[in-house]
Structure formats: structure tokens, C-alpha cells
Design a protein that fits this description.
The protein is an alpha+beta fold and 384 residues long. It is built from 12 helices and 12 strands. The longest helix has 20 residues, at 164-183. It is globular.
Length: 384
């Protein structure tokens, strides 16, 4: 069977303690769950599973938030849900699991996506219980070095010879591209408005900083090394948000009268050095291109998650892609990075960009905790 994406939506991305911070993450998830089936015109009872990414599965996000979101959405109790953690790539991995299940013939209709409310469940909350996720054997293997993403970002900048001015220029570009996309109404079709408990309706991404400049970023203090290059302005934002993609077999799409937008051409996941941690998008891209039989030139748009500016810049240097094709509508530096929901947010953005510009192929990859990366190539089926 061939798996196709028939709808892709997301919430606005809220700033930390911003407009979405008062919304429970299960309720935030319910917003996109309801929107994705409403737009497709299907009854939620036909959904055979909800595969949901979420990184910090404690507090408001504990006890299988996928299932809790289904209940919060008011869907039939017969619809199950399962929560996935592949760190920042959790909702991209949710899509890949959904696709594999459909193509294996186990499912006909499944929803993939994810959520993270970093305002309500701060990053690192899952590791606050006594103990450590890094065992003695793990620490011994890496000479006692405890993984740290920020230090990894600094190591990448040093290894690829990236200066602070290069990183800051990339960060400014991210905000400029996101602002231009927002002003042009590009995000409007993919964003589902969210009504907060106090009655406010959030409709726009909150993280875009208009008028950002290298001069203003140059004043910021580095975070991880005193003489380093990484600071808050060239790193992804702490955010709240959710995303959802509706996946069907081609046969199910025809049966339900739904027109596919894209099919999943190729996908992969790789592991790399967990200390540097953020370099895996490079081998993931090479591997998925090799698996697909496509060339770099065949890809019309690339989405490389902007966890830190050094990640996509090192990727660009190594892969040699056209910079104009990479994150054309801005990335996590401007739009934010709600961990478990980011993969789906980026996929949704890429699908809409491909459709708006008639691009046949798009490739998404993102670095993940533990030194991993997913890579997914989509092929446009319906240009709308």
C-alpha cells in the first residue's frame, strides 16, 4: 500500500508564558485533532490510531497524552492513542511510524503529530526525578562527558569554522523570512486558531522578532561558553504548540472521497555521536537521498530544524544545498520549537510550501537528543 498525507495543520506557535500558556497541552492537541478531520470531511470514528510526539511526558503531558487528547477532543472512546519520544523529532517520528503502519497494511486511517507546552512543562522536567538518564556504563563510554545540546552546538560551530557573525546573520534571516511569510498570509491556511480559557483567540505565531539585526544580537551574552558563539538570539525559542497530519492509504482516501496532498517518498533515521549530538541531520540527509534515488538538485525545498543556527549552517556546508531552498519561511529561531510538536509543524509548513509553489519534492530533517536524526522526503501529489 502507499501512504498519503491528506491534511496537515498546526496551531500558532506561542512564546514561553505567552498566549497559549494557559491552554492544557491535551486541549491544545484536541484543537488540531478536530481541525484535521473537519478539513478532510471525515468522521473521527474512522481513525484507527493517533500517534503523538511529546518529549516531556510528565505533569500535564503524562499518562499517554495522545489518548488524553483524543478524549479531550470529544472523539469516540474507540479511538486509541500512543505517545512517542524521539526527543525533538518526536512528531516527525510519529509520521514515520504512521506511514510504516499504513504501508504494511495494518492501518487505513491514522493521525500523526505532537505537542509540547514548554510553558507548563519546562524542558528537562522528565529528568528531575531522583536519578539520571545516563547510566554509569553510558558515562564510562564517553569518558564522563554528560551530553549538553548547547555545548554540542558550540562544538559544531568550531568544527565547521562558523563565526558568531555568520550565526547571527542566519538568525536575522530566519526572522526576516518568517515575517515576510506571515505578512503574505502564507501561514494562514495551515494555522488553526486556538481559543484560550479566558476567551482570547490566538491566530498568529508569537516568536517573530521584526527588526532583528546583527547589531542587536551582538549585544547578547553567550550561554554555554564565555568565549563561545551560541546565545539566545541564534538558538531556537522555547515555545508552546501542536501539529497534526492525517495519513491514509490511497485506497482509504479514495473510499472517503479525500484528495491526497502528498505521499511519503522515502524516510530514514540515523544515530550519530551523542556528545556533539546535533550532527546527525547530515548523515540522515545523505542516507535518505541514497535510499530515494533522488539527487540534491531534485529537491525543491529543504527544512532543517533550527535548534541552533550552527546546525543548519554546518548542514549547508557539508551537504552543499542551495541556501535559498533551506527554511524559506523561517525556522525555529523565529517561529519557535515546541519540542514534541516541531516535526509536525515543520512538515506542515513544508507541505503547504510545496503546494503553493508546485514543488515536487521536499526533504525535512532535524537533530534529536541522543545524537539522532530523522529525514523524510515528501512528493507532491496535488498542487491544489
Amino acid at each position: 500500500m502507499t501512504a498519503v498525507i491528506v491534511e496537515a495543520v498546526r496551531t500558532p506557535v506561542g512564546k514561553r508564558n505567552g498566549g497559549l500558556s494557559t491552554v492544557h497541552p491535551a486541549d491544545l492537541s484536541a484543537v488540531v485533532l478536530n481541525a484535521v478531520v473537519e478539513r478532510a470531511g471525515i468522521d473521527p470514528s474512522v481513525v484507527e490510531d493517533v500517534i503523538w510526539g511529546c518529549v516531556q511526558q510528565v505533569g500535564d503531558q503524562a499518562n499517554d497524552i495522545a489518548r488524553n487528547a483524543v478524549i479531550a477532543a470529544g472523539w469516540p472512546e474507540t479511538v486509541p492513542g500512543v505517545t512517542v519520544d524521539r526527543q525533538c523529532g518526536s512528531s516527525q517520528q510519529a509520521l514515520n511510524f504512521a506511514v510504516a503502519s499504513v504501508e504494511a497494511g495494518h492501518y487505513d486511517v491514522v493521525i500523526a503529530g505532537g505537542v509540547e507546552s514548554m510553558s507548563r512543562v519546562p524542558m528537562g522536567s522528565g529528568a528531575t526525578f531522583p536519578g539520571s538518564p545516563y547510566s554509569p556504563a553510558y558515562m564510562e563510554r564517553y569518558d564522563g562527558v554528560k551530553p549538553n545540546q548547547g555545548i554540542g552546538a558550540e562544538m559544531i560551530a568550531e568544527r565547521w569554522g562558523l563565526s558568531r557573525s555568520e550565526l547571527d546573520a542566519f538568525a536575522v534571516q530566519s526572522h526576516e523570512r518568517a515575517a515576510a511569510a506571515q505578512d503574505a498570509g502564507f501561514f494562514d491556511l495551515q494555522i488553526v486558531p486556538v481559543k484560550t480559557p479566558d476567551g482570547e483567540v490566538i491566530t498568529r505565531d508569537e516568536g517573530i522578532r521584526r527588526g532583528s539585526s546583527q547589531e542587536s544580537l551582538a549585544k547578547l551574552k553567550t550561554v554555554f561558553k564565555e568565549d563561545g558563539v551560541i546565545h539566545a538570539g541564534n538558538a531556537s525559542q522555547i515555545s508552546d504548540g501542536a501539529s497534526a497530519l492525517l495519513i491514509m492509504s490511497e485506497q482509504a482516501a479514495a473510499r472517503h472521497g479525500v484528495r491526497p496532498i502528498a505521499r511519503i517518498h522515502s524516510l530514514t533515521v540515523v544515530g550519530d555521536d551523542p556528545v556533539t549530538m546535533l550532527t546527525a541531520p547530515i548523515p540522515a540527509t545523505k542516507k535518505v537521498l541514497d535510499k530515494s534515488g533522488l539527487s540534491l538538485e531534485d529537491i525543491g525545498v529543504f527544512e532543517v530544524n533550527e535548534a541552533f543556527a550552527s546546525v543548519p549552517l554546518a548542514w549547508l556546508k557539508d551537504i552543499g544545498a542551495d541556501p535559498a531552498k533551506v527554511n524559506p519561511n523561517g525556522g525555529a529561531i523565529a517561529l519557535g520549537h515546541p519540542l514534541g510538536g516541531s516535526g509536525g509543524r515543520i512538515l506542515t509548513d513544508m507541505i503547504h510550501h510545496m503546494r503553493a509553489n508546485g514543488l515536487r519534492y521536499g526533504l525535512q530533517t532535524m537533530c534529536e537528543g541522543g545524537g539522532q536524526a530523522n529525514a523524510t522526503i515528501l512528493e507532491l501529489v496535488d498542487a491544489g
